[in-house]
Amino acid sequence: MMLSTSLLLFLATCGVEVSSFSPAPMLATGASAQHRQMTHIFSMPDDPYPSDYDADDLESTEKTVSVDMDENDAIIRDELKRELILLSSVTNRGSCATTEESNLVVDLVTQLEALNPTADPAANCQGDWELCYSSTQSFRSSPFFLAIRSFLGDDNKQIAESAFDIHDAATTASRVGKVRQIIDKNNNELVSEYEVSVGLLPGLPVQVKGTVITSAEMSVIRPESWELEVKGTKVKGSNVPFLDAFLDDSDLEVPVGEAYKAVSGAVPVSTLKTFYVDEGLRITRDVDENFYVFTRA
């Protein structure tokens, strides 16, 4: 109940109530200006686009899935994956990566996405996956935090970023264990497992351990994209006497989705995009282009 109350207070505190384009005309110069007819491109106040073209005519800049069918590129993919996994291990999943190492990982990820061997990657991610690299805080791969980012929206992105930084600083002393995602496309569900150990008091060799499990309803909406709606959060595997048995046996879950409905009337919809997946590796991006690299568990 404390987690539910904290969530309601956080959302209530951070929640938000759910130009015409007129470039200057091209002026003709030189001696031929008198004989050249000028065309003025302008917009009316209720028309955001210049009148001589339609917005649909513009090419989309949104990233799309690449599918590499060249069998000879398999060797290149394997080399890129080996280097990526090596960097993931020596940087503690990216949490202690230098700027040079981070830039190198970005380059490796970009190359792998261009060599993606799987059509419709979002529909081909069934199974258990373990996080091996994250370009941002690893906890942001959980639907719980993805929902917070979606709830606040782009207009309040900085509020979300500040909240995540505060959470990160508050848990600096904790040790993150396995971070997993279990994707069950038959039941349209994504389950996030975040294993963490937190010291009770500085200097004391006593830690509270547990796995925070968050479930979300998942829908494949495009070849690369999922939409997620968080459902609930619970804790399993606690090492606290008596509490561990109670939590494991009672299956007590905080209904996060219902809390959002009570606050705003709807569950925030989060989008994840997978631009690379094969039999052993997956690269998924969130709405802010943070990427998460998973290997088969």
TrEMBL record:
Keywords: Plastid, Signal. This is PAP/fibrillin family protein. Its main location: plastid. Pfam families: PAP_fibrillin. It comes from Skeletonema marinoi. It comes from the Eukaryota. Residues 79-294 form the Plastid lipid-associated protein/fibrillin conserved domain. One of its GO terms (cellular component) is plastid. Residues 1-20 form the signal peptide. It is found in: Plastid.
